[in-house]
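FW: tagging you since you asked about this chain on Friday. Here's the raw sequence from the shared folder, copied in full. Didn't touch anything.
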Amino acid sequence: MKTSQILAAATLALLAATGAQAETYQGVNTAVSTKSRDEVNAEAVRTASAPNQNVTRGSRGPETVAVSKDRSIVEAEAIRAAYAPDQNVTSGSRVNSKVVSTMPHPMDVRVQAQQGAGATAK
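HL: got it, structure written out here
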């Protein structure tokens, strides 16, 4: 016999030996419950008839939020942050870098211009 045929026969015998090991059948698992069938049925009926059970959050209108600041203050802070010249730059943007704002804030320039115009108009 050739060596390849002997190796093939040995491999086939090894596969047959390992494939012969089968799992044992344990049967159907029994249900373990502390509630009776009537209690489970009553709980299912209560849950199915509960109000608003399938309503997603926010579909009943806006949710209330605790307000800590006046709306105009929050709007002014948001506008100031949106116009900041270095709003997307952090100290971690580059290695060993420091954020130094060299540009004046546009809102400050506008306020100074309005104050300067008001001072000369008086």
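FW: DSSP finds four helices and no strands in the chain.
HL: agreed, and Residues 5 and 99 are 75 Å apart (CA to CA).
FW: great, closing this out.
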